[in-house]
Amino acid sequence: MRRKGMKRKLNESLTAYGFLLPNLLGLTVFVFVPMVYAFYVSLHDWNALSPKVFIGFENYKEMASDKEWWKSVNRTFIFTVIYVPLLFAGSLFFAVMLNSMKQRFVGVARTMFLLPFAITSVISAVIWMFLYDPRHGFINQFFDLLGLPKQQFLGSTDQALFAIIVVIFWINLGYNMMIFLASIKEIPLDYYEAAKIDGATGWKAFWNITFPLLRPTSIFILVVTTIGSFQVFDQIMVMTKGGPANSTMVSVLYIYKQGFEFLNMGYASALAVVLFLIIFVLSLAQLRLYTKKD
Amino acid sequence: MKIWKMFSIFSIILILLFQAGCSDSSSTGEEDGVVTLKFWDMHTDAEKAFFEELVKEYNAANEDKVKIEYTAFNQSDYSNTKLPVAFANDEGPDVFMVSPGDFTKYAESNILADLNSYFPEGAKEDFLPASIEAVTYDDKVLALPYELELLGLYYNKKMLADAGVEVPKTWDELKAAAEKLTTTDVAGLVLPTDKAAYLNFIWYPFLWQQGGNVLNEDGTKSTFNSPEVAKALDYWGSFFQDGQAPSKLQYGPWDAGNLGTGSAAMSIVGTWLIPVLEKDYADTEFGLAPIPVPEGGKPATDAGGWKMAVNANSEHVDEAAKFIMWCFAEDKSRPLKWATEVKFAYSPRISVVEEGKAIYDKGLRKVFTEEIYDSAIPEPRFGPEIVDAVGEAMQQVMFGNVSGADAAEEAHKKIEEALSK
């Protein structure tokens, strides 16, 4: 009997690992191995064309005085500080709105919100380039109609980063909203009924019931969005390539420039390792901060 | 148990897939004495078709000896991803195209094979000396030039006439013309906006016209902090600051669409535009003039163009070099077809230009041949860090409210640093 039980247990865990295997294989080949390899490369002077020369931590030393790199990190922080709260508040707001809508419209509204997420990032970037075009773009035509002055958007050092934030916000809003919406639907209606009896409705109910109960979801969205905003690349690459005058040169774009334009593969790898550490520490700190109170 | 069966089948498939993916697909090699060569480039449309045709012809003529496999990639993928990654993994193509912007990078890394001994008797002398000089590195000829693309000022004849503007000949006239021609729908002058080698390429003539340059004669020192650089930067930047050149474009700055669709009155573009304007925008009348010069300056234009190169690490350098010589250094018909039928450019070979005289005098081509050709200076082949420093200086002046002198000083330091490496 006992032996049979053990056998079943073994069988079960084998099955479980078996199902995980394809994913683990993929992760190992495409994530873990390249990560370790990137660190290895970061200790070398390598231009991808000639053999690697081991130089220890020279790349890291060089990085310390690379003003352009730290400027790009700073720019990434600015991006994150604006984008993450905006996306968080926006997706929560629309999730609550959708939740209180009549069931008939919810399906349509959900699809509409999610549509941008289904578009390839490069294509959505191109669509927005047309909208933002200073001379013939829809947005400026619209401004013109309202009597507002025409703007340069992606062609202005002051506006380009914000213009890009709007695009990425537009892309990711629907997806994050869906996650919030799903969590809101999980909250038992009894809570709201009880609160109603106590006289708490509307804003009060949201603040005392919905928001606290969404805590795990909120943490998830904040952490994932922060990580994502540190890795932002493709839309910027398509829309501005870091310009004008470097005003949208975020960290990943700078790494790309060092790696694939200058062919400083070793140095670019060192930058990538440091960016990874920044994201890692930041995510840990966020998790600590948000889960402390429990 | 069924699950187990399915699972093991699935695992086997997965393992097989991985093996297939990882195995060395060595297409470069010999089979029955036939050498297979990989040939990569970044051409599209008619230009790609031309090379497909060439490869077919060559393969047929050398059936039992050489087989060329031609692949064309998207241009930005090709330069920034495909080639570096392939060379890094020792899987680079045997034959490939290299742009002036990448030439130094590859030359320094010993990727380019010396072609000196492969030129057919007397063929090298047929090339313009400047075009050979542009691909010579340490006394070795590391690539084969096959086209010279020149720049000029294209304009919409009707727009200029309607605005009462004469074709500009000087910097002041160009500036005034751009201002007059700019309306809410039409850009006075279209220039490239984004940082890229192309941005510098279009700007260099403004520097050369005054006798300025990025580096000194032997390329060892930066001369970028000169007043000529500051002046060229300020002049170029003023078009953007005053809103006469758009800060963002819907078509590439090299595209015929800007002029063709009537959204621009003037644009500085290269020889390649002529066939497109003739074919796609035949209803509109366009003019062409040399790039306007500053007071006391002399005319100058770029001679750009990709080159064909052989991978020095290829196992079949001989066969690869013979192929590219066959393409552009032997018979006159192939380079002539390329430069006059497929696209419009100048062949670096004197005999080919003579042979095609009738075509070089047709329509707007005549302006290039008679008024611009003599002022051509080969596109510089600076390394990527210098290209970036120059581009950054331009961007700072165009969009960052920085003066030409300050931006030049900043770039000068970066160039010196890049040269000292």
TrEMBL record, chain B:
Q: Name one Pfam family in it.
A: SBP_bac_1
Where is the secretion signal located? 1-20
Give a GO molecular function annotation for the protein: maltose binding
- GO cellular-component terms in the record? ATP-binding cassette (ABC) transporter complex, substrate-binding subunit-containing
Q: Which UniProt keywords apply?
A: Signal, Transport
Q: Which GO terms describe its biological process?
A: maltodextrin transmembrane transport; maltose transport
Q: Member of which family?
A: Belongs to the bacterial solute-binding protein 1 family.
Stated name of the protein: Sugar ABC transporter substrate-binding protein
- Identify the species of origin: Robertmurraya kyonggiensis
